[in-house]
Amino acid sequence: MNYDPADTQFHVVVNAEQQYSIWPEYKAMPAGWQEIGISGDRQACLAYVSGIWTDLSRRSLRDAMAE
Asked: Buried (b) or exposed (e) across 18-45, using 16+ Cβ within 10 A?
């Protein structure tokens, strides 16, 4: 369920495990997440995340599997 107003703008954010999400611009950024410079409406941001985040495993797991 979406509780944000229809005209809400979002930022694409990433954490240290290289997991992506979107975050509404009117809320303070949660600890451990950083904006990556992509903003827009919900659909545009989700489309970007869908295109860039193709391996959903977290970075620490990928690193462990590579060893």
From this structure: eebbbbeeeeeeeeebeeeebbeeeeeb
CATH class of 10-66: alpha beta
pLDDT digits (tens, 9 = 90+) for 24-61: 999 999 999 999 999 999 999 999 999 998 776 767 76
Q: Which strand ranges, in their side-by-side order, compose the sheet holding 10-15? A: 20-24, 10-15, 33-40
Give the pLDDT of residue 1.
62
| Domain ranges across the chain | 10-66
Tokens representing residue 64 in the block: 């462990």
Name, in order, each residue with C-beta under 8 angstroms of 43's C-beta and a sequence gap of 6 or more.
none
Distance (Å, rounded) from C-alpha 64 to C-alpha 67? Answer: 5
